[in-house]
């Protein structure tokens, strides 16, 4: 770990298990530094303390967050999630992102969105959205645009099936280098996948059997070690030849 | 603050369409075929009459207890059987603590009808003093996790718990009016007399063509048009059928379902019996360890 002169405290805790109440940074010893806090951390005056149990992670230049794997999701700004439209209001769509509260998706939060071309979503539409802000006690706010206002890949997901996983598995699916299960499946089968960090992923393929195979393989692989995953995948891919 | 709509599973339109499309090629979302059951595992607690059943993601615990009570006036020679269900809020977001809701009561009724109408448990042997004192057997079913098909899992939990329950032995006092209940240390408790095991098998009808699937998962239950539960035993008797609302079903489909159900009932009955047997073996082994070896040369 490189020596960081002003973050001596944090280097103790990065990549270690932390529990709620741990103070990981003392801001009084750092001057003129911007720190970005991700999920699980809170600013208490001059100290940054942990709210959620898990492993503390750090990426350059200045982002800290706590990683843990749950079946329930705690919304955090900047996350890409899968949501289901539950209701339509004049100003917002109410979207369920598997968190403690429903989220609001403003009707204008689409690329080139104006009052004239508000999309019509029926109840049960599956969307890939970005969490814009998620303060505790308030409903999270979503957007179908990225930070620069382009649609990117956000929007409605048609066909396919949404499988549930845990937040930890979703993170592994999104990591780079790619998750070995995804790589192995991708070499033999062709499918489309959208991963939400809120503990679910969507798979689509030309055949239902492929969708079912991919979804179940990913769900099962969570509890297997690397070696077991390889064996499981080999058996699976051989059986579909 | 808008709360989640906790009362129903929020299904996407994609899921509903996918489940129906996949069923047209005989595929289910968890990889099963339409007439495959999920993995059933039965385990027991240390006490007699407590069971835990896991059917896929669905978990149910059953507890059987007995008490001496006055019999009903019109049935002075018979003991009573009562079923209580508790849908724990940790099983599903739509379950609320407190009074049982409609589905909880329906589940209790299905299990109750399967046991009572078919006379699976011999109630006359539960009579101690006619007209005065009989055993009242109470079955408590706790739903711990709802992964779909609670009826079948609860039924197996009730049967497993009943098969391992033992009631204390009781004898009449000197004047023939008093009942002496012997503690388990003094006299070995007695098992219930169970004539047969009525097993419930649930079918779901999904989609416009009413494709039949057995043992629906939580998601399949949310998209199904109707469901039917058939309770049968291995002797070929149909103990009960429950079809509460939903799509109409052809008579030929019902007969096909009953045929499939009798095959599945055989599988499940043999699983219950082997689990109960291994529990009883383990129980008797435990008793052997309790006794001290006799001082007069107990040699290995």
Automatic annotation (TrEMBL), chain A:
**Can you list the GO cellular component terms from the UniProt entry?**
cytoplasmic exosome (RNase complex); nuclear exosome (RNase complex); nucleolus
User: Which residues does the UniProt record annotate as the domain K Homology?
Assistant: 160-207
Q: Does the keyword Glycoprotein apply?
A: no
UniProt subcellular location: Cytoplasm; Nucleus, Nucleolus
Domain Exosome complex exonuclease Rrp40 N-terminal spans what residues? 35-72
Top-level taxon = Eukaryota
Q: Which Pfam families match?
A: KH_6, Rrp40_N, RRP40_S1
Q: What is its main location?
A: cytoplasm
Q: Which GO terms describe its molecular function?
A: RNA binding
Q: List, alphabetically, the InterPro entries matched.
A: Exosome_RNA_bind1/RRP40/RRP4, KH_dom_type_1, KH_dom_type_1_sf, NA-bd_OB-fold, RRP40_KH-I, Rrp40_N_euk, Rrp40_S1
Gene Ontology terms: biological process: CUT catabolic process; exonucleolytic trimming to generate mature 3'-end of 5.8S rRNA from tricistronic rRNA transcript (SSU-rRNA, 5.8S rRNA, LSU-rRNA); nuclear polyadenylation-dependent rRNA catabolic process; poly(A)-dependent snoRNA 3'-end processing; TRAMP-dependent tRNA surveillance pathway; U4 snRNA 3'-end processing
Tell me which UniProt keywords the record has, alphabetically: Cytoplasm, Exosome, Nucleus, RNA-binding, rRNA processing
- State whether keyword Cytoplasm applies: yes
Describe the family membership recorded for this protein in Swiss-Prot or TrEMBL. Answer: Belongs to the RRP40 family.
What is this protein's name?
Ribosomal RNA-processing protein 40
Species, as recorded: Cynara cardunculus var. scolymus
């Amino acid at each position: 770990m490189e020596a960081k002169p002003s973050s001596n405290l944090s280097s103790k805790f990065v990549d270690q298990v932390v529990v709620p109440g741990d103070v990981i940074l003392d801001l009084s010893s750092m001057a003129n530094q911007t720190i970005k806090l991700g999920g699980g951390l809170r600013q208490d005056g001059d100290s940054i303390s942990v709210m959620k149990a898990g492993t503390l992670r750090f990426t350059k230049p200045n982002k800290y967050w706590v990683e843990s794997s749950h079946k329930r999701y705690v919304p955090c700004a900047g996350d890409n999630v899968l949501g289901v439209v539950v209701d339509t209001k004049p100003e917002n769509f109410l979207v369920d992102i598997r968190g403690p509260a429903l989220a609001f998706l403003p009707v204008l939060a689409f690329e080139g969105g104006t009052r004239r071309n508000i999309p019509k979503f029926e109840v049960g539409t599956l969307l890939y959205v970005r969490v814009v802000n998620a303060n505790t006690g308030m409903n999270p706010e979503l957007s179908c645009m990225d930070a620069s206002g382009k649609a990117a890949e956000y929007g409605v997901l048609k066909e396919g099936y949404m499988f549930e996983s845990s937040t930890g598995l979703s993170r592994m699916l999104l990591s780079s280098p790619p998750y070995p299960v995804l790589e192995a499946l991708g070499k033999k089968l062709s499918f489309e996948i959208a991963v939400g960090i809120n503990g679910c992923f969507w798979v689509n393929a030309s055949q239902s059997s492929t969708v079912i195979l991919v979804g179940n393989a990913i769900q099962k692989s969570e509890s297997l070690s690397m070696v077991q995953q390889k064996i499981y995948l080999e058996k699976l891919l051989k059986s579909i030849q | 603050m808008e709360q989640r709509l906790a009362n129903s599973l929020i299904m996407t339109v994609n899921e509903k369409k996918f489940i129906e499309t996949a069923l047209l090629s005989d595929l289910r979302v968890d990889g099963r075929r339409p007439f495959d059951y999920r993995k059933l595992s039965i385990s027991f607690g240390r006490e007699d009459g407590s069971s835990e059943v896991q059917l896929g993601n669905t978990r149910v615990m059953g507890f059987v207890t007995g008490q001496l009570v006055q019999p009903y006036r019109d049935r002075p020679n018979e003991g009573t059987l009562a079923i209580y269900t508790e849908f724990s809020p940790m099983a599903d977001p739509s379950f609320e603590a407190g009074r049982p809701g409609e589905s909880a009561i329906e589940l209790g009724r299905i299990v109750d009808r399967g046991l009572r109408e078919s006379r699976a448990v011999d109630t006359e042997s539960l009579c101690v003093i006619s007209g005065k004192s009989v055993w009242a057997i109470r079955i408590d079913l706790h739903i711990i996790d709802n992964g779909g098909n609670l009826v079948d899992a609860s039924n197996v939990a009730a049967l497993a718990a009943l098969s391992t329950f033992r009631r204390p032995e009781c004898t009449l006092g000197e004047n023939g009016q008093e009942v002496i209940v012997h503690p388990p240390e003094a006299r070995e408790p007695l098992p219930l007399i169970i004539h047969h095991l009525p097993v419930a098998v649930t079918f779901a009808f999904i989609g416009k063509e009413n494709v039949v699937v057995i043992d629906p998962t939580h998601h399949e239950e949310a998209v199904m048009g109707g469901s039917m539960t058939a309770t049968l035993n291995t002797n070929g008797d149909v103990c009960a059928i429950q079809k509460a609302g939903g799509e109409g079903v052809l008579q030929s489909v019902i007969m096909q379902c009953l045929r499939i159900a009798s095959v599945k009932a055989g599988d499940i009955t043999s699983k219950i019996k082997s689990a109960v047997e291994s529990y009883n073996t383990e129980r008797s082994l435990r008793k052997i360890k309790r006794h001290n070896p006799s001082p007069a040369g107990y040699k290995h």
